[in-house]
Write a structure and sequence with these properties.
Blueprint: H1 21-49, H2 55-78, H3 87-102, H4 106-134, H5 140-162, H6 171-191
GO molecular function, one term: metal ion binding
Pathway: Cofactor biosynthesis; ubiquinone biosynthesis
Keywords: Iron, Membrane, Metal-binding, Monooxygenase, Oxidoreductase, Ubiquinone, Ubiquinone biosynthesis
């Protein structure tokens, strides 16, 4: 699509001079963890609903998340950022959340998607503001990537709404609980 970010290999020649290391380390670490967790959520949903009518839609979103994770894997190497030590926990927690929400049916899976993707796109917006305040020219490539991924997450959010997420059992309770979990995951993954 027009304006889409190229998912080509990230240059290993990233100039680290003048980069605000604590900010960049935190952003790349948490975004990598988030995309890793999103992959595990969609894996859990596919394990339950993969052969259902909503399976192809979940697969399409998962494929985008796989591309996001691949890009953040590259950025971690290019910027020399270590991953969060919580990845083994996010591996299990993400799959359980995906499969658990899917056990509520397609509406439950879509409610999970809406909650997670709304949280992540809001988080990406916060990162965009931070990088714009730091130096938009210095962080141009990273800003472009985060903006594109934020737009993809908003698209997933909208797909969830189009597929009756709000009709899931106890939607508002489910959404609030998942979003609290996302905020906790973001807080911890930025720091640990």
């Amino acid at each position: 699509p027009a304006g889409a970010v190229s998912l080509r290999r990230c240059s290993t020649r990233v100039t680290l001079e003048g980069v605000n290391r604590p900010v960049i380390d935190r952003i790349i670490r948490v975004d990598h963890a988030g995309e890793y967790g999103a992959n595990r959520i969609y894996a859990g949903q596919m394990a339950v609903l993969g052969r259902s009518s909503v399976g192809p839609i979940i697969q399409q979103m998962w494929n985008q998340e796989k591309d996001h994770l691949k890009k953040f894997n590259e950025l971690m190497v290019a910027y020399r950022v270590r991953p969060t030590v919580l990845l083994p926990f996010w591996n299990v927690a993400g799959f359980v959340l995906g499969a658990g929400s899917a056990l509520l049916g397609r509406k439950g899976a879509m409610a999970c998607t809406v909650a997670v993707e709304e949280s992540i796109s809001d988080h990406y917006n916060s990162q965009i503001r931070t990088l714009m305040e730091e130096d938009p020219e210095k962080y141009k490539e990273l800003l472009q990537i985060i903006k594109q991924f934020r737009d993809d997450e908003r698209e997933h959010h909208d797909i969830g709404l189009e597929h009756d997420a709000e009709a899931a059992p106890a939607y508002s309770v489910l959404k609030t609980a998942i979003q609290l979990g996302c905020k906790a995951a973001i807080f911890l993954s930025e720091r640990i």
